[in-house]
Write a structure and sequence with these properties.
Blueprint (H helix, E strand, L loop, with lengths): L7 E5 L3 H12 L4 E5 L2 H11 L3 E5 L7 H10 L8 E5 L4 H9 L4 E4 L4 H72 L5 H10 L1 H32 L8 E3 L1 H11 L1 H4 L9 E6 L5 E3 L1 H20 L5 H5 L2 E8 L5 E8 L6 H4 L16 H15 L3 E6 L5 E8 L9
Parallel strand pairs: 1-2, 1-3, 3-4, 4-5, 7-9
Antiparallel strand pairs: 6-8, 9-10, 10-12, 11-12
Helix pairs in contact: 2-3, 5-7, 7-8, 8-10, 10-13
């Protein structure tokens, strides 16, 4: 396992010698270590810093380790953080109690170097796998749902779309026939004339063609949404495919249109598209659409997040740029917003797979970690963030136009 600084661990122990020993073991293996000397401090620090794992002593002054663990598991922000108890007690009852209230393992005292590292590595990897599987399951369900919806909508929409032109032509012919009839039938019967006046035939002649044209435009819009759903739901990526990046961005914007349009509470988000001419890019299309969805959702969130300055409120903007890099071997995709920006301390962790300072239901920061993994691990590319508080954020994606190997694991 790669023990980067993003793998943060909180040590909770009231014995200075234990803290020193654990700190030395973990710090030299490049973990980011923080310390709390009692349960109350641990609860506060865990909620503020959201470590990836907690090493928790059982016997402490004030609230003990069992009560601390129970309170951690009751807090929605900290309930998913793995807790490993540290204890010199080997009583089976105590071990069962700890596991019952939510701990994932025990480390016995006196502390052994190999045991500590082995168990930390195992549970961090399990946590990482759990998050991946959870996200994969959600995306798979989303793919199946959108594919099913698109299939069900497609049939009636295709019927309407295929026939509305014929209806438009039929109405045009009938209205023209009516005009000819009126020209040649000067001696109109009173009953016919009364009915013509009743239905306001001149209004029908004017409005009916316009109504049919509007129906055709709206039907075409629904068809675009269905195509976007089908494109976005192509999540069964087992082989690289040649993909139109600009088309993927457009389909994602269509799916997000309800969050972009103006409502009673906000003005419309202005979308600026500066698309360059791109060749087909070899990639996993479903995964790339997922990246676009996560980054664009983050941009929209940042434009809705208070406090907003009058500049942002009056002119919320997302700019999307695509181009080929100077060496002609990669494409560059930039997604920028003029929102609230991201604090520097968050920027350092924002691509960490465990970093979820927002709720999992909203999932914005976790989505950025998934996007980073898709780009860097699955496409041999890069995903960078440039942001300043109050000045907006800019995400820069580069991926090769051609993948030199058949599949990236």
């Amino acid at each position: 396992m790669n023990n980067s600084l993003d793998n943060s661990i909180l040590i909770v122990d009231d014995i200075p010698t234990n803290i020193k020993l654990l700190f030395e073991i973990l710090h030299q293996t490049e973990f980011n270590v923080s310390v709390a000397k009692d349960g109350i401090t641990a609860l506060k620090k865990a909620e503020e810093t959201l470590p990836n794992l907690i090493l928790l002593d059982v016997m402490m002054p004030g609230i003990d380790g069992f009560e601390t663990c129970r309170l951690l598991k009751e807090n929605p922000k900290t309930k998913n953080i793995p807790v490993i108890f540290m204890t010199a007690r080997s009583d089976l009852v105590d071990r069962v109690k700890g596991l019952t209230i939510g701990a994932v393992d025990y480390i016995t005292k006196p502390i052994q170097y190999e045991e500590v590292l082995a168990k930390i590595s195992i549970h961090l990897e399990l946590r990482r796998t759990q998050l991946k599987l959870s996200h994969a399951a959600k995306m798979s369900s989303l793919g199946q749902l959108t594919s099913g919806i698109a299939h069900e909508i497609n049939k009636p929409i295709n019927f309407i779309f295929d026939n509305i032109t014929s209806v438009h032509n039929y109405v045009k012919d009938l209205l023209e026939l009516l005009t000819i009839y009126e020209q040649y039938n000067q001696n109109k019967y009173i009953e016919i004339q009364d009915y013509i006046n009743k239905i306001e035939i001149d209004v029908i002649k004017k409005n009916l063609p316009q109504l049919l044209s509007s129906m055709q435009i709206e039907t075409e819009q629904v068809e675009k949404i269905v195509r976007s759903l089908q494109l976005f739901s192509s999540l069964d990526d087992t082989e690289f495919q040649h993909f139109k990046i600009n088309e993927g961005l457009d389909s994602t914007l269509i799916l997000l249109s309800n969050r972009i349009k103006a409502t009673s509470k906000r003005v419309e988000i202005h979308i600026v598209k500066n698309y360059g001419y791109l060749p087909f890019v070899e990639c996993y299309p479903g995964q790339m659409n997922q990246v676009f969805m996560n980054l664009l959702t983050h941009a929209i969130d940042s434009l809705e997040e208070p406090p907003l300055s009058s500049r942002i409120y009056k002119n919320p903007t997302i700019e999307i740029c695509t181009d080929v890099t100077e060496n002609q071997k990669s494409v560059l995709i930039t997604i920028a917003d003029n929102g609230i920006g991201i604090a520097e301390e968050i920027q350092q962790k924002i691509f960490d797979q465990f970093f979820v300072t927002k709720t999992l239901e909203k999932g914005t920061y976790f989505g950025l970690a998934i996007a980073h993994e898709i780009i860097t691990n699955n496409h041999r590319g890069t995903l960078e963030l440039k942001s300043s508080p109050g000045e907006g954020s800019r995400f820069l994606i580069t991926i090769p136009i051609e993948q030199t190997i058949s599949k990236v694991s």
